[in-house]
TrEMBL record:
SUPFAM superfamilies: Class I glutamine amidotransferase-like. One of its GO terms (cellular component) is cytoplasm. The keyword Repeat applies. This is DJ-1/PfpI family protein. NCBIfam families: not_thiJ. InterPro entries: Class_I_gatase-like, DJ-1, DJ-1/PfpI, Prot/Nucl_acid_deglycase.
Length: 186
């Protein structure tokens, strides 16, 4: 099994690259799938950086993932929100009790929009926190809700911590520490 990372035109590039890079350092197989409405693999991220996905989401040969990760950024989160296959995969992941993770705008724009948060404790970019129910909102940089198999985080500055939490739930504390050390993480 591997981890599916969704990306679309306007996705946040620091988050996308930090997630993919950190997971690869942990020797986790990562599949970066484009949700580009035009069916393209190459996308222009939120700050204009060009990213090339491994495949388009319509080309996926498997639906069996240890985790599905949604980077933030606008309009990238909106494009993922509006990609029916992406939402089907996230719903299926939740139904199977497998990990899902979203950062920045994505917890609200993608997951909350499609009623995929349940009553999980979550965080998101501070600009979107007012859209979360007070009882669910955490202002922590990274929030892991084991009961819902959900990890959320606030934004580009928390992306490596977020990715390390994904490593931690998939491969354990030792693997997360082994990756964090050479990255000079606190």
């Amino acid at each position: 099994m591997s981890v599916l990372v969704l990306v679309a035109p306007g996705s946040e590039e620091i988050e996308t690259v930090a997630i993919v890079d950190t997971l690869v350092r942990a020797r986790i197989e990562v599949l970066l799938a484009s949700c580009c409405p035009a069916g393209l693999r190459q996308i222009r991220a939120s700050r204009g950086v060009q990213l090339v996905a491994d495949c388009h989401i319509d080309e996926l040969s498997s639906r069996d993932f240890e985790a599905i990760v949604v980077p933030g950024g606008l309009p990238g989160s909106e494009a993922i929100r509006d990609t029916p296959l992406a939402i089907d995969l996230l719903r299926e992941q939740a139904a199977l009790g497998r990990w899902r993770a979203a950062i920045c705008a994505a917890p609200v724009v993608v997951l909350q929009h499609h009623h995929l948060l349940g009553d999980a404790s979550v965080t998101c970019h501070p600009a979107f926190q007012v859209r979360l129910p007070v009882g669910q909102l955490s202002t922590a940089r990274v929030v892991r809700d084991d009961a819902h198999r959900l990890i959320t985080s606030q934004g580009p500055g928390t992306a490596i911590e977020f990715a390390l939490e994904i490593v931690r739930v998939l491969r354990g504390d030792e693997a997360a520490h082994a990756v964090a050390g050479p990255m000079v993480m606190p």
